[in-house]
């Protein structure tokens, strides 16, 4: 796993980094004079964990936050862990037949990716996989939107998504792609074993080669007159159907 320093901003993102990965938080900047009790809590927690805290002006925070809303706090962080593709098989095997992998084929909006990671963390996924090309990486916007989820789950940016899907199949993982034109319903599909759920990016959805490597295509039944859902909404629905099946009875 490789790391590089970056700034993360916002109350939830910074608080989560301090709570879950304090060893990689290099320093915390807090807006001086703020009366926000959440900022006080963050500052106290950082100091308890021997993290340097500096009180700075709102202007200084805006300088590191760029276009993001900093909410009075920022942290310099050894960036989100980048997992090597070779580490994925061990994670699948450690799940002992109950691996749940989320595959995102070409999500380019950082807010969507952040929301997908948040749902993935809440659903307890084994790993999240997306291609290095044609996808947004784990940047500051993704980290902020994910509310810290990017720090808590293994995320794999792979060179060749089709090859990765083949490797998952060889590990005994069934791969289901979400497609609006599919005949099979998500709710009638057995998602209780080793399963990878594939969702396409904004606009075009899954690419042709990605579809061809799926064991089956499923759809979310929608009785209304809307043809498709935002990818982050569809991700939440799909993951928690798997959770429902795995925890039922």
From TrEMBL:
Catalytic activity line of the entry: guanosine(2251) in 23S rRNA + S-adenosyl-L-methionine = 2'-O-methylguanosine(2251) in 23S rRNA + S-adenosyl-L-homocysteine + H(+)
Boundaries of every RNA 2-O ribose methyltransferase substrate binding domain copy: 7-83
Keyword Repressor: no
Domain of life of the native organism: Bacteria
Subcellular location: Cytoplasm
E.C. number(s) listed in UniProt: 2.1.1.185
Keyword rRNA processing: yes
Chain residues that bind S-adenosyl-L-methionine: 200, 220, 229
First-listed, main subcellular location of the protein, grouped into a coarse class: cytoplasm
EC class: transferase
Keywords linked to the UniProt accession: Cytoplasm, Methyltransferase, rRNA processing, S-adenosyl-L-methionine, Transferase
Similarity comment text for this entry: Belongs to the class IV-like SAM-binding methyltransferase superfamily. RNA methyltransferase TrmH family. RlmB subfamily.
Physiological role: Specifically methylates the ribose of guanosine 2251 in 23S rRNA.
Protein name from the UniProt record: 23S rRNA (guanosine-2'-O-)-methyltransferase RlmB
Organism placement in taxonomy: Bacteria, Pseudomonadati, Pseudomonadota, Gammaproteobacteria, Lysobacterales
């Amino acid at each position: 796993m490789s790391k590089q320093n970056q700034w993360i901003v916002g109350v939830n993102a910074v608080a989560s980094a301090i709570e879950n990965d304090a060893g990689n938080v290099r320093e915390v900047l807090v807006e001086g004079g703020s009366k926000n009790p959440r900022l006080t809590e963050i500052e106290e927690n950082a100091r308890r964990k021997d993290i340097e805290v500096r009180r700075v002006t709102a202007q200084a925070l805006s300088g590191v936050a760029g276009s993001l809303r900093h909410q009075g706090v920022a942290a310099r962080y050894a960036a989100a862990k980048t997992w090597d593709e070779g580490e994925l098989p061990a994670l699948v095997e450690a799940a002992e037949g109950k691996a749940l992998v989320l595959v995102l084929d070409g999500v380019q909006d950082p807010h969507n990716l952040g929301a997908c990671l948040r749902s993935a963390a809440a659903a307890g996924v084994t790993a999240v996989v997306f291609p290095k090309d044609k996808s947004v990486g784990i940047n500051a916007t993704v980290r902020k939107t994910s509310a810290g989820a990017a720090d808590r789950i293994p995320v794999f940016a792979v060179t060749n998504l089709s090859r990765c899907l083949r490797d998952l199949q060889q590990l005994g993982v069934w791969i289901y792609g979400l497609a609006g034109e599919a005949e099979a319903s998500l709710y009638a599909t057995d998602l209780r074993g080793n399963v990878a759920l594939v969702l396409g990016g904004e606009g075009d959805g899954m690419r042709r080669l990605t579809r061809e490597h799926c064991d089956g295509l499923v759809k979310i039944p929608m009785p209304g007159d809307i043809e498709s859902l935002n990818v982050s909404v569809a991700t939440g629905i799909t993951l928690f159907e798997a959770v429902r099946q795995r925890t039922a009875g």
